[in-house]
Records
---
Amino acid sequence: MKVLIKQATIVNSTSPFNGLAKDIYIKDGIISAIADSITEKADTTIEGKNLSVSIGWIDIFSHFCDPGYEHRETLETGAKAAAAGGFTEVMVIPNTNPVVHSKSQIEYIIQKSKDLSVTIHPIGAITKNTEGKELAEMYDMHQSGAIAFSEGINSIQQPGILLKALQYVLAFDGTVIQLPEDKSISPHGLMNEGIISTQLGLPGKPAIAEELMIARDIELVKYTGSKIHFTGVSTKKSIELIAKAKADGLKVSCSVTPYHLFFCDEDLTTYDTNLKVNPPLRTKEDMLALREAVKKGMVDCFASHHIPQNTDNKICEFEYAKNGMIGLESLFGSILSMVGNPSSVIDLLTILPRKIFGLSVPEIKEGAKANLTLFDTTAEFTFEESMIQSKSKNSAFIGKKLKGKVIGIINEDKLALN
């Protein structure tokens, strides 16, 4: 396959071409030329006003539901959604049926997805069946290709179990991903505990349930010297705790979701079940604090928390709706709308997450394998359901005006254009 990208501004903070508009010629999946003007014939030519290109984006927390919940998503439809969102690589959580807690299940995901345009990295479960009781075969899973370890949409409640897991991954410099929530605090909460939950008559989940878990886990990291990544961080205090841990030299990192930056608990007055997520949408103050944290470099990367739900799990009373929304296709437009500064947003989608999880960082240079995302930072549009490639459509971003549009991706000698 021969692809010619015409006059695209390269957005890559570590590249000598950063900020320059260049032609890029790709042959058989390899960048063969970068120049001011290339006249080589190509199978596909990509050009357009305000076209930008960066190394491929990576998402660190998506649910592709395969095996077991293919009515919500499959590896194939998840990859299509990821490509439409600009992602060339995705880390998938282990909350499938059966749970991804052994080497054979890691190998299943890698083998089944090897011919897709998006590279899929499986995350192994920390405990058997994500029940939080007994450690899973973490070393075997690591040897088979597990990129990290997590309970996914669950979290490790027992400190002793997490302590063992943190000690275990030291043997191969692994990373534990934790969704911070102490479930013993208000286990029946449906949204953030506060003024809005009182007005709506819904039981709340207090911010302290997240903050206590983060404080506890930081102490365990201090004791073990291991690496932990907190995802779905949603409160101002949580960010402050993580910032202090980093300042103390601990191996702690964090990610935020697009919807925690875009929405707050005030948006739940319509009882929109697509906004029922975990951790819940917090106060406006927390939302604004998260945006500032991204701008100040206190957040290490973004995580889509792409959680597909079929219609029956969302078209129902708020109390019975399942948590989660899809997020791969709307991530770039929603974040750029809130945060601005495309260069720093791209760093948080490309270089920083790969460093956290020990992945090699692609390069935009002659002779390098093409792992690229094409986008337009200036395009403004309304996100429509017709744009969604995911099998499920549970997105609260439908109908919202966003800024920053994905043109397509090039990865593994495959081209996927929107």
---
Amino acid sequence: MAQQKPVVRVMKPEDMPAVVEIDSMAQESPRFEYLQTKLVTGISMVAEMDTRIVGFVMGAMNRGEYGIPEKIATIDTVGVHPEFQQAGVGRVLIEEFVNHTRKAGARRIRTLVDWSRQWDVMGYFRSSGFTPAGSSIVLERMI
């Protein structure tokens, strides 16, 4: 039997318990407040299969940061329930996020990945069409 394709829609406040549960499976501790803030301030979507939330993506639209007068979307957090990983849920979430932000005027989407430990996440983004940004480099200073 063919795998059903998830339905992606805009996240609602009542989706938060399922989103926190999925996120908690990959994090050391629940991040309810963090995810709640992202829901209120950004672009958040969920993937459903048979009315069950099986994944989510959260990001934002930046309209000219760091002196760059360009609309750039960012992906901040992605989560897929372990039972549905490798089933195309993450790819469908990214494509819907791309479509949504393209309609809003973005021509680029950026995200950050921890080079030292998130090799699986880098592979996921690479398979979704992401490449290292050639024109930018992130600088930081420990304080």
---
Amino acid sequence: MFTVIKRSLSLNSSIIFFVAFVFSILIPVAVSADDIDGKSIIADIEKRLWGKTSQGTYKMTISTAYWKRTLSLSVFMQRPDKSFIRILSPAKEAGVGSLRIKNEMWNYLPKIERVVKVPPSMMLQSWMGSDFTNDDLVKESSMINDYTHEITSTPVDDNIALGNEPAYQIISIPKPNAPVVWGKLVYVVRKSDLMPLSFNYFDERGRLIKSLTFSNVREIEGRQIPTRWEMRSTDKPKNATVFELVDITFDKPIPKRVFTLRNLRGR
């Protein structure tokens, strides 16, 4: 029983934080070229998290050399501190729910009809062999406060091309005593419209550990959004976690009852 609960906690806490993280870097920014700097770009991205609210359906596929698994998710988010997720399929996980309010998180496990609060000890665990940990995803929401941000001035760094598109490289370095696990985080943002192209994780020794890349940009409700995100680890090149947007609605009111333990239980 403990093993089932532990795995479900890891799976669902990772899902909700994964969604939170992905949307924190989706929306094209509107920073004036005259005022552009690393912090302003990231601050504007944070400011535009899902507009005021977002609600939609997503598909997450995790692949390794030996197996492949896909989840369908229903997601509700309200900036800056409320998120709710319900797994729609496959049948084995259908009904599982995750609720986050500020720094607290709960999971509902329908097979045992229990709501379980996620403990801090679960934050460093990976999700079903993927390249995401709970800590990775939670900490991205505090990037502005926990990191310093700089667009590098050297020609190579300041004109990184991804897919032959000129791009900015924004280097984020942890502030002293910041409660983070990464030694450096690097955004690659297209110069023409400040669309995020990739997000890269480095350890304290400066080694690239994993990269998240964005593709399939399309317009949704007047927003240009990359609708496919793929995470790959440098030490597991055959593994990939792909997150795809199915549908989404921005800035529509979400009933307060959505972000409650009662709703988490499906009541």
---
Amino acid sequence: MLKWVLLGAVAALFYFWLKRPKLAAAPVPAPPRITEPLPIVPCAYCGVHLPAQDCLEREQRFYCCSAHCNEMDPAGWYGLARWRPSPNFDARPTGIQPELVLIHHISLPPGQFGQNYIGDFFQNKLDPTAHPYFAEIAAQKVSSHFLIERNGLISQFVSVQQRAWHAGESDFLGRKQCNDFAIGVELEGDGETAFTDAQYVALAQLIKVLGNAYTHLSFAGHSDVAPKRKVDPGRHFDWQRLQRENHLLQEQLPFGLEFRA
């Protein structure tokens, strides 16, 4: 009898052991996450260092704010332009600052728009076999500070603090060698086709920035300073619109507001 009582007790203990509440296993802590440090970059305008994610990025350049992106930086480069540095430049004469914006037109091949040949030309990368005309000009060493394409895109090739090679033999109201004191702006055009609204808008945007950097700028066309050699920007360039949209004084346009060349 005792044996059966002991067996019953053992069975009861085993039953209650199986039914006991299970203790939750202590959670295993997750390994700490190793995070990559945020890249710190300098503002291309003022040099302040900030996390890249907090900056405005423009062609792999970083700006701390939109105002700095839309200015000429201390080295003479425009933040909103596409930078395509040209080897064709040298120093302005000592003490000379830009005083003239000289407007040109250019198309490569002549009469054709929307290709990259102009930039290649200014960077000495023009393939002379790509078009018969290129064989005539590929060896030339020329440049401009800015190019405004038909869609309004602005490219910059030379710092405005440096002398670009765009005017050639020239005379502005008795001052020769305009490259010394001029900023060259090329408009994509052929002299036979009207310039686009996008180009006038971009030109006004650029003129505002140039005016912030240099006061008392004058404006002229290539044909005004080299009348025996050049006809650009041509008879389709609207000088009245240039004055109106940029609030220029008459004295800043010494060759007048008439369509010419």
